[in-house]
């Protein structure tokens, strides 16, 4: 089956995805069209077996970033003033990703730094996540300490933790992501699930394939936790897919990291902003 670009340039046929056709029997051509629309190339971020092991160069979850001093640490603002610091979620060196010819708008050089407020339920509110793209080499930069939370904030905000998350290196694998909830048709959803379940089992239980991964290729630490890039998943993602927003990163609740969020936190960007390398337009969305 052909896999569509992660940046589709077509309109989604409403009659194939709407609730009005929840029980209609689609033709094989319509079923195939839905599979093509709902499948995207994506990247799986798998924690190494132990924190001390090497992953893909310059790629890790949590911890402290090697963010150059020329960039400020992102803060959540209130009335235009810094209110409390965001948490660092991930640092990803782009030339370590096995992107091949896919993901045509993603920069191939530099590093992406992901930050977010995890004290809030995210629904696209501006100023609660931050993505910074540094084009130069940051391997020689020192880790930036996380700023302290102002004491008065802790009296009013449900802050998960004031400490950085644990740093954990990751390996990176490409896979074809199928959003089984893309259409609300029950027959198609069951057919999609019949593909998703065995494919996911094979992906997560297999050893890392050197041809599609970067980093330490020993046994991955999976443990039921899924962290991805460019991966559409779930009911809310259906609407985000239709608007062609790009899922830059999705982090799941992960006790290894100390990331005890609602469930998933997704960071998205409009395709026109990505094309312009304007990562200031990234936004967060909580997926439960």
Helical coverage, percent range = 10-25%
Based on secondary structure, the structural category is alpha+beta
Major sheet attributes: 8 strands, antiparallel
pLDDT averaged residue by residue: 83
Low-confidence stretches are none
Name the overall outline: globular
Distance, first to last CA: 29 Å
Tally of strands: 13
Key words describing this protein structure:
eight-stranded antiparallel sheet; alpha+beta; about 290 residues; three-stranded antiparallel sheet; single chain; about 20% helix; globular
What is the element layout, followed by pairings?
Blueprint lengths: L13 H4 L10 H11 E9 L12 E2 L13 E4 L2 E5 L1 E7 L17 E6 L12 E6 L16 H4 L13 E11 L7 H20 L7 E2 L12 E3 L5 H8 L3 E9 L4 E11 L1 H5 L7 E5 L1
Antiparallel strand pairs: 1-8, 1-10, 2-5, 2-8, 3-4, 5-6, 6-7, 8-9, 11-12, 12-13
Structure description:
The protein is α+β, with helices and mostly antiparallel strands and 288 residues long. It contains six helices and 13 strands. Strand 3 and strand 4 (81-85) form a beta hairpin. The longest helix has 20 residues, at 186-205. It starts with 13 loop residues before the first helix and ends with a strand.
């Amino acid at each position: 089956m052909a896999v569509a670009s992660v940046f589709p340039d077509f309109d989604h046929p409403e009659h194939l995805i709407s609730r009005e056709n929840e029980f209609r029997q689609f033709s094989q051509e319509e079923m195939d069209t839905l599979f093509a629309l709902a499948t995207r190339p994506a990247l799986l971020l798998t924690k190494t077996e132990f924190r001390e092991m090497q992953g893909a160069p310059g790629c890790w979850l949590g911890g402290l970033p090697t963010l150059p001093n020329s960039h400020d640490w992102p803060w959540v603002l209130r009335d235009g003033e810094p209110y409390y610091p965001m948490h660092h979620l991930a640092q990803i060196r782009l030339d370590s990703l096995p992107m091949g010819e896919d993901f045509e708008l993603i920069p191939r050089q530099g590093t992406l730094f992901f930050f977010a407020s995890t004290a809030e339920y995210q629904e696209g509110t501006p100023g609660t996540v931050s993505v910074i793209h540094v084009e130069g080499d940051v391997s020689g930069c020192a880790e930036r300490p996380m700023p302290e939370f102002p004491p008065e904030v802790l009296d009013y905000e449900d802050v998960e933790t004031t400490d950085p998350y644990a740093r954990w290196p990751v390996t990176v694998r490409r896979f074809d992501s199928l959003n089984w909830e893309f259409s609300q048709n029950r027959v198609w959803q069951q057919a999609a699930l019949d593909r998703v379940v065995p494919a996911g089992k094979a992906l997560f239980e297999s050893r890392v394939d050197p041809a599609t991964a970067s980093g330490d290729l020993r046994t991955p630490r999976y443990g039921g936790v899924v962290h991805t890039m460019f991966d559409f998943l779930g009911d809310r993602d259906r609407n985000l897919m239709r608007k062609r927003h790009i899922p830059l990163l999705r982090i799941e609740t992960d006790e290894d990291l100390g990331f005890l969020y609602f469930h998933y936190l997704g960071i998205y960007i409009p395709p026109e902003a990505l094309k312009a390398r304007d990562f200031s337009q990234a936004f967060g969305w909580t997926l439960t």
